[in-house]
Protein backbone atom coordinates (compact mmCIF):
# COMPACT_ATOMS: atom_id res chain seq x y z
CA UNK A 1 0.00 0.00 0.00
CA UNK A 2 1.40 3.40 -1.00
CA UNK A 3 2.07 5.63 1.98
CA UNK A 4 1.88 9.41 1.95
CA UNK A 5 5.34 10.92 2.11
CA UNK A 6 6.03 12.96 5.22
CA UNK A 7 9.13 15.09 4.53
CA UNK A 8 9.26 16.18 8.16
CA UNK A 9 9.41 12.60 9.49
CA UNK A 10 13.22 12.28 9.57
CA UNK A 11 13.58 15.45 11.63
CA UNK A 12 10.94 14.31 14.11
CA UNK A 13 12.57 10.89 14.49
CA UNK A 14 15.90 12.59 15.16
CA UNK A 15 14.26 14.80 17.80
CA UNK A 16 13.47 11.82 20.07
CA UNK A 17 16.75 9.93 20.56
CA UNK A 18 15.39 8.50 23.82
CA UNK A 19 12.93 6.48 21.73
CA UNK A 20 14.45 6.26 18.24
CA UNK A 21 17.94 4.78 18.31
CA UNK A 22 20.04 6.88 15.95
CA UNK A 23 23.22 4.73 15.88
CA UNK A 24 22.08 1.16 16.65
CA UNK A 25 25.39 -0.35 15.56
CA UNK A 26 26.99 1.20 18.65
CA UNK A 27 24.83 -0.91 20.94
CA UNK A 28 25.64 -4.41 19.72
CA UNK A 29 25.72 -6.65 22.78
CA UNK A 30 24.72 -3.74 25.02
CA UNK A 31 21.00 -3.28 24.53
CA UNK A 32 20.46 -3.84 28.25
CA UNK A 33 22.32 -0.54 28.73
CA UNK A 34 19.91 1.26 26.41
CA UNK A 35 16.93 0.02 28.43
CA UNK A 36 18.86 0.22 31.71
CA UNK A 37 17.77 -3.27 32.71
CA UNK A 38 18.29 -6.91 31.72
CA UNK A 39 14.76 -7.83 30.72
CA UNK A 40 14.07 -10.15 27.76
CA UNK A 41 14.28 -8.43 24.36
CA UNK A 42 11.63 -8.90 21.68
CA UNK A 43 11.77 -7.23 18.26
CA UNK A 44 9.18 -6.68 15.55
CA UNK A 45 10.39 -6.50 11.96
CA UNK A 46 8.19 -4.24 9.88
CA UNK A 47 6.58 -2.58 12.87
CA UNK A 48 4.55 -0.22 10.70
CA UNK A 49 2.56 2.32 12.68
CA UNK A 50 3.35 0.58 15.94
CA UNK A 51 -0.07 -0.38 17.27
CA UNK A 52 0.89 -4.01 17.92
CA UNK A 53 4.23 -3.36 19.59
CA UNK A 54 3.05 -0.46 21.72
CA UNK A 55 0.18 -2.68 22.87
CA UNK A 56 2.64 -5.43 23.74
CA UNK A 57 4.86 -2.99 25.61
CA UNK A 58 1.92 -1.74 27.67
CA UNK A 59 0.77 -5.27 28.47
CA UNK A 60 4.24 -6.60 29.31
CA UNK A 61 6.34 -4.00 31.18
CA UNK A 62 8.79 -6.76 32.14
CA UNK A 63 9.83 -7.22 28.48
CA UNK A 64 11.79 -4.78 26.30
CA UNK A 65 10.64 -4.20 22.72
CA UNK A 66 12.27 -2.76 19.62
CA UNK A 67 10.25 -1.93 16.52
CA UNK A 68 12.14 -2.03 13.24
CA UNK A 69 10.73 -0.20 10.22
CA UNK A 70 12.51 1.05 7.10
CA UNK A 71 10.01 3.71 6.01
CA UNK A 72 10.36 6.85 8.11
CA UNK A 73 6.94 8.18 7.02
CA UNK A 74 5.38 5.12 8.67
CA UNK A 75 7.52 4.63 11.76
CA UNK A 76 6.92 8.22 12.82
CA UNK A 77 3.37 7.17 13.76
CA UNK A 78 4.82 4.42 15.96
CA UNK A 79 6.86 7.14 17.65
CA UNK A 80 3.64 9.00 18.43
CA UNK A 81 2.33 5.88 20.21
CA UNK A 82 5.43 5.78 22.44
CA UNK A 83 5.32 9.49 23.21
CA UNK A 84 1.64 9.36 24.12
CA UNK A 85 1.94 6.28 26.33
CA UNK A 86 5.42 7.13 27.70
CA UNK A 87 6.67 3.59 27.20
CA UNK A 88 10.14 3.12 28.74
CA UNK A 89 10.35 -0.48 27.47
CA UNK A 90 9.90 0.31 23.76
CA UNK A 91 12.40 1.72 21.26
CA UNK A 92 12.42 2.14 17.49
CA UNK A 93 15.00 1.63 14.77
CA UNK A 94 14.60 3.17 11.29
CA UNK A 95 16.77 0.55 9.54
CA UNK A 96 16.69 -2.32 7.02
CA UNK A 97 16.01 -5.84 8.31
CA UNK A 98 18.83 -7.10 6.07
CA UNK A 99 21.25 -5.44 8.48
CA UNK A 100 20.05 -6.94 11.75
CA UNK A 101 23.35 -8.76 12.25
CA UNK A 102 25.00 -5.33 12.49
CA UNK A 103 22.84 -4.31 15.44
CA UNK A 104 22.50 -7.42 17.62
CA UNK A 105 24.91 -10.11 18.70
CA UNK A 106 24.15 -13.81 18.96
CA UNK A 107 21.71 -14.59 21.74
CA UNK A 108 20.72 -10.98 22.35
CA UNK A 109 17.14 -11.28 21.07
CA UNK A 110 14.59 -13.58 22.70
CA UNK A 111 11.74 -13.39 20.18
CA UNK A 112 10.95 -11.97 16.75
CA UNK A 113 7.52 -10.86 15.54
CA UNK A 114 6.57 -10.75 11.86
CA UNK A 115 3.13 -9.22 11.38
CA UNK A 116 1.42 -8.75 8.02
CA UNK A 117 4.68 -8.63 6.08
CA UNK A 118 4.66 -7.78 2.38
CA UNK A 119 3.74 -11.09 0.66
CA UNK A 120 5.79 -10.40 -2.48
CA UNK A 121 3.46 -12.74 -4.41
CA UNK A 122 5.53 -13.09 -7.58
CA UNK A 123 7.84 -16.13 -7.52
CA UNK A 124 10.82 -14.10 -8.68
CA UNK A 125 10.46 -11.94 -5.57
CA UNK A 126 10.48 -14.85 -3.09
CA UNK A 127 13.88 -13.80 -1.72
CA UNK A 128 12.33 -10.58 -0.45
CA UNK A 129 9.83 -12.36 1.79
CA UNK A 130 10.73 -12.01 5.47
CA UNK A 131 10.25 -15.77 5.90
CA UNK A 132 12.71 -16.69 3.12
CA UNK A 133 15.64 -18.85 4.21
CA UNK A 134 18.22 -16.06 4.10
CA UNK A 135 16.15 -14.04 6.58
CA UNK A 136 15.67 -17.13 8.74
CA UNK A 137 19.47 -17.40 8.92
CA UNK A 138 19.74 -13.73 9.96
CA UNK A 139 17.17 -14.29 12.71
CA UNK A 140 18.98 -17.41 13.90
CA UNK A 141 22.21 -15.43 14.18
CA UNK A 142 20.74 -12.97 16.70
CA UNK A 143 18.22 -15.09 18.61
CA UNK A 144 18.86 -17.02 21.80
CA UNK A 145 19.09 -20.78 21.52
CA UNK A 146 15.58 -22.12 20.86
CA UNK A 147 14.43 -18.58 20.11
CA UNK A 148 11.01 -18.08 18.54
CA UNK A 149 9.36 -16.34 15.62
CA UNK A 150 5.69 -15.36 15.94
CA UNK A 151 4.08 -14.73 12.56
CA UNK A 152 0.68 -13.32 11.54
CA UNK A 153 -0.80 -12.62 8.12
CA UNK A 154 -4.09 -12.50 6.26
CA UNK A 155 -2.41 -13.82 3.10
CA UNK A 156 -3.03 -17.55 2.74
CA UNK A 157 -0.38 -17.95 0.05
CA UNK A 158 2.29 -16.31 2.17
CA UNK A 159 1.26 -18.35 5.20
CA UNK A 160 1.49 -21.64 3.32
CA UNK A 161 4.83 -20.61 1.82
CA UNK A 162 6.13 -19.61 5.26
CA UNK A 163 5.11 -22.86 6.93
CA UNK A 164 7.04 -24.73 4.24
CA UNK A 165 10.02 -22.40 4.58
CA UNK A 166 10.05 -22.82 8.37
CA UNK A 167 9.85 -26.62 8.10
CA UNK A 168 12.54 -26.86 5.44
CA UNK A 169 14.84 -24.75 7.60
CA UNK A 170 14.29 -27.15 10.50
CA UNK A 171 12.18 -24.98 12.77
CA UNK A 172 9.71 -26.57 15.16
CA UNK A 173 6.07 -25.61 14.55
CA UNK A 174 4.76 -24.96 18.06
CA UNK A 175 1.42 -23.35 17.23
CA UNK A 176 -0.60 -22.97 14.03
CA UNK A 177 -3.98 -21.28 13.65
CA UNK A 178 -5.80 -21.08 10.33
CA UNK A 179 -8.40 -18.71 11.76
CA UNK A 180 -6.99 -16.80 14.69
CA UNK A 181 -10.04 -14.72 15.51
CA UNK A 182 -12.21 -17.84 15.75
CA UNK A 183 -9.67 -19.73 17.87
CA UNK A 184 -9.21 -19.96 21.63
CA UNK A 185 -5.97 -17.95 21.52
CA UNK A 186 -5.83 -15.52 24.43
CA UNK A 187 -4.11 -12.14 24.49
CA UNK A 188 -4.04 -11.29 20.79
CA UNK A 189 -3.12 -7.67 20.11
CA UNK A 190 -4.16 -6.52 16.67
CA UNK A 191 -2.14 -4.49 14.20
CA UNK A 192 -3.74 -1.74 12.10
CA UNK A 193 -3.80 -4.06 9.09
CA UNK A 194 -5.25 -6.90 11.12
CA UNK A 195 -8.20 -4.83 12.28
CA UNK A 196 -8.82 -3.60 8.75
CA UNK A 197 -8.68 -7.07 7.19
CA UNK A 198 -10.71 -8.70 9.96
CA UNK A 199 -13.52 -6.16 9.47
CA UNK A 200 -13.61 -7.23 5.82
CA UNK A 201 -14.08 -10.82 6.94
CA UNK A 202 -10.58 -11.94 6.01
CA UNK A 203 -9.24 -14.94 7.88
CA UNK A 204 -6.15 -14.24 10.02
CA UNK A 205 -3.40 -16.88 10.08
CA UNK A 206 -0.90 -17.19 12.92
CA UNK A 207 1.95 -19.48 13.89
CA UNK A 208 4.76 -19.77 16.41
CA UNK A 209 7.97 -21.49 15.40
CA UNK A 210 11.13 -22.29 17.34
CA UNK A 211 14.73 -22.84 16.35
CA UNK A 212 16.10 -26.20 17.49
From TrEMBL:
What the entry lists under InterPro entries is as follows:
SAM-dependent_MTases_sf, tRNA_(Gua-N-7)_MeTrfase_Trmb, tRNA_methyltr_TrmB_bact
Give a yes or no for keyword Membrane in this entry: no
Biological or metabolic pathway of the protein: tRNA modification; N(7)-methylguanine-tRNA biosynthesis
Q: Which reaction does it catalyse?
A: guanosine(46) in tRNA + S-adenosyl-L-methionine = N(7)-methylguanosine(46) in tRNA + S-adenosyl-L-homocysteine
Molecular function (GO) terms listed? tRNA (guanine(46)-N7)-methyltransferase activity
Per the UniProt record, which EC number(s) apply here?
Answer: 2.1.1.33
Which domain of life does the protein's organism represent? Bacteria
Query: Where is S-adenosyl-L-methionine annotated to bind?
Result: 44, 69, 96, 118
- Please provide the record's keywords in A-Z order: Methyltransferase, S-adenosyl-L-methionine, Transferase, tRNA processing
Function summary: Catalyzes the formation of N(7)-methylguanine at position 46 (m7G46) in tRNA.
Query: Which protein family is named in the record?
Result: Belongs to the class I-like SAM-binding methyltransferase superfamily. TrmB family.
Name of protein:
tRNA (guanine-N(7)-)-methyltransferase
Q: Which organism is it from?
A: Cytobacillus mangrovibacter
